[in-house]
Amino acid sequence: MRQTGRQSRRPERRTAPTAAELARVHDRTLAEAAARELAQPPYPDPGAPGLLEPRPEIGDSWARLRRLGLDPDAGAAAVHLGPAEIEQRRRTSGLDAVMPVLRDTLLQPVGQTPLILAIADAEGHVLWQEGERALRRSADRIGFLTGARWIEESVGTNGIAVALRAQRPMHVHSAEHYLRSHHSWTCVAAPVHDPGTGRLVGAINLSGPARNVRPYLLQLTATAARLAETELRAHRLEALHQLRTLAAPMLARVAGPALVVDSAGWTAAAAGLPPPGRLRVPVDGWGAASVHWVPGLGECALEPLADGWLVRPVRPPEADDSGTVTAEQAEGARLRLDLRRQDRPELTVRGTAGSWSHPLSPRHAELLLLLATGREGSTAAQLAEALFGDAGRTVTVRAELSRLRRYLGGLLAHRPYRITESVLVTVDGPDDPYDLLPASSAPAVRRLRAGLAAGTVRLPGAVPVPQPRGPADAPTGPQPPASSAASWASVGPQARSASAETSA
Q1: Which are the contacts of 159, defined by CB distance < 8 A and separation ≥ 6?
Q2: How far is CA 364 from CA 74, 145, 210, 221, in A?
Q3: Alpha carbon distance 24, 52 (integer Å)
Q4: Helix (H, G, I), strand (E, B) or coil at 284
Q5: How far apart are CA 341 and CA 416, in angstroms?
Q6: Kind of pairing between the strands at 424-428 and 170-173
Q7: d(CA 296, CA 407)
Q8: Spatial separation of the C-alpha atoms in residues 454 and 457, rounded to whole Å
Q9: Which of 6, 53, 294, 321 has the fewest other C-beta atoms within 10 Å?
């Protein structure tokens, strides 16, 4: 009988690797990397059957740290905050209000299991550290204490850093830690986002001896993070209610349609027009200009109001559809995708429709990056393969593209999906290629990071990196392509050629 499906996939392990197995993976992977750097073959094929490989998130982290030159036996100089800055960061993070519920959720149910509860801000600074006293003394010896900055660049692969980069619950067990001094520990962590803005505000972490690992700890930590976000949402709703009370008499005196939104763009009250759930506010606010082009509303007059804005459309959007970018307005537009900040991807558009910017969700940032590096266009199946490694997930891709089109309008074409040819696209990437959308596990994004690190591709609009010159002052190789079929073929869906993608 004919077999169907992919036959090259290895059978999945039904048991977690032991600490000894992870230690062998750690030593072998670092040894192979060192051999490649020294060009000293032979070394085992990483894809050889029978060899246990690190998980993708762990392997990516190790590769990044090897590239940075971090010593797995020594780490880097520790960074510690003073008491005053710790208190200031506790207040600004907003997590101080949810600490009581986190203590009750994470420390009491685990009973006699020795654990440390640590809460970090979005930059990895440990703001709180509580738990069993003897275990905390042991943690102090590896620098895991209040005020320490627990990031990969200093202390290698660890639960807090990986969860902040991936922006999803993660666990790092035993020798999955990059530093050998951490191999006796296991840690689970989950990120916490501000429900109003989607901004990453910190991470919740549980750490303990590797021999005492409990399978339920990851689920417990993820639940605690969702509970913390629920508490933050309750605080925001209360603030929105107070803004609504303040705005009601003001809207009664305003002539014409108007609405009041909070600093994150959530609508508190509206008069004379259907209230949108949320307006897209630029990362740095609307600034001092009195008139802005707002996606969905068109040109609007804005006035600061308490912890929000009074927004008055200059022309009602339903009269001329001024809130949507038309194909004519897209002519000659400039689209800039700013991915320099790990936790804050941003889109800026300048053109005849006006100038506006707003933060992007992780999925929209991935999609726009793929569209920006593949200007020839892609089908929904190709984008699904690039995002999920599964060409069948076209429904999800089409739904996300439909949401993008609500405010991109004529900037986004379809059949195939692509950014309109007349639009000038620039992608600002981070200095370290491995910081490009670090939360993304999309196959195409991972290939793009590797291509950028190797110098074989570059982002659209990026300044070419000067190539090393030989003795005769001649370039030793061609410049890596930017937005072209060649660059997309190296990072996009691998099952089709570049020419097939453009014609699909």
Answers
A1: 170, 171, 172, 187, 188, 189, 205, 207
A2: 39, 36, 37, 27
A3: 9
A4: coil
A5: 30
A6: unpaired
A7: 7
A8: 8
A9: 6
Place of tokens 């943690």: 139
Task: Give the pair of three-digit tokens for residue 394.
Answer: 């076209």
Which amino acid is located at 316 in the chain?
P
Q: CA 283, CA 494: separation in Å to the nearest integer? A: 35
Residues 6+ apart with CB under 8 A from 297: 276, 279, 311, 313, 317, 322, 323
Q: Is 79 exposed, middle or buried (0-12, 13-18, 19+ CB in 10 A)?
A: middle
DSSP notation for 135-170 = HHHHHHTTT-STTBB--HHHH-S-HHHHHHHHTS-E
Q: Which amino acid is at 446?
A: R
Long-range Cβ contact pairs of 215-219 (< 8 A, separation 24 or more): 217/110, 217/115, 217/171, 217/188, 218/169, 218/171, 218/188, 218/190
- The set of residues, in sequence order, having a beta carbon less than 8 Å from that of 43 and lying 6+ positions away, is 31, 32, 35, 36
Residue 261 DSSP SS3: strand
Q: Are strands 424-428 and 334-338 parallel, antiparallel or unpaired?
A: parallel
Using the structure block, give the residue that is written with the tokens 């559809």: 321
What's the pLDDT tens digit per position in 5-47?
A: 444 444 455 567 777 778 787 778 777 776 665 554 444 444 4
Contact 442, 404 (CB under 8 A): no
Query: Residues with Cβ < 8 Å from 440, sequence gap 6 or more?
Result: 362, 365, 366, 446
Q: How far apart are the first and last CA of the chain?
A: 32
pLDDT digit string (tens) for 403-431?
888 777 778 888 899 988 888 899 999 98
- pTM for this model (two decimals): 0.71
Nearest by Cα to 151 from 184, 123, 193: 123
> What is the rounded distance in angstroms from the CA atom of residue 55 to the CA atom of residue 61?
10
Specify whether the CB–CB gap between 484 and 472 falls below 8 A.
no
Q: Would you list the DSSP string of 162-222?
A: HHHHHTS-EEEEGGGSSSGGGTTEEEEEEEEE-TTT--EEEEEEEEEEGGG--TTHHHHHH
- Residue 473 — very low, low, confident or very high, per pLDDT cuts 50/70/90? very low
